[in-house]
Amino acid sequence: xxxxxxxxxxxxxxVLLGDTLVSVDEARISPFDRGFLFGxxxxxxxRVFDRIPLSMHAHQDRLAKGLSExxxxxxxxxxxxxxxxxxxxxxxxxxxxxxxQITRGCEIPRRHVPSHExxxxxxxxxxxxxxxxxxxxxxxxxxxxxxxxxWHRCDLKTIGLLPNVMAATEAxxxxxxxxxLYRDGLISEGSSSNVMASLNGAIITPKFGDFQNIxxxxxxxxxxxxxxxxxxPVECRPLSVDELLQADEVAITSSRRILHxxxxxxxxxxxxxxxxxxxxxxxxxxxxxxxxxEPTAAAR
Length: 300
Ligand code: PMP
What we know:
300 residues, binds 4'-deoxy-4'-aminopyridoxal-5'-phosphate
């Protein structure tokens, strides 16, 4: 069953604003919030199965790095875990995606250079998502290729996502669910996912590091670890557009989608195979172990 087979327009009954749970209709943020005026904020999204958030430490570490590099103060990234628990409790959810956004705060009048002592705006909500039992095989979808027109600090999960929104909208208009972005002939990542190719039995993936400033994806790390655990070699290195177009298989990973298989790129069919189905099986088995209380890669 499709992992996205839920209400397409769900509405959370309550959201967390600051330290308070309020109904969506009561939630108010100042128009002088720097998130609204400058896109001055960071965010995270974690997927939860049976109350176990996947790769929680990776999300918290990435959030801590984003806060520290942007100089947004007044929020400890380790609070994400308790926010997740609080929202699951309030909404009586076991399987969910929990979004958290921290902006630098509100300041009047608008000025580029922020004052030092701003109180950050904290906003979070949970939406139901399908349970683990629905993840039988990877969803199969198609993608388009588009130039990467984003800034150069894509390793930070910042809220200014207009180029991602534009690329994702183009994909949607083309009947696809993801835009895979490239820069200087090299694949960077999807508009909201990381990208892996399988060539001659090995997985190749551009991973955040010395050579590319892309998002260090929590699910990409989980997929790499899962692949290696079942003996599939993984090379983390630049991946050219030509290589992607010649790949036996292509897949994308993200917390919301876990792992989706790509069957066509810009309308060109990708041959397909069993590499990513095996990786997906290992990932879901690991999530099942985590749900059963075992310390697996998924539960870290
Ligand atoms: N790249 C981009 C641009 C994203 O927005 C996302 C989704 N957050 C990812 C990669 C995947 O990251 P993760 O696996 O941590 O959800």
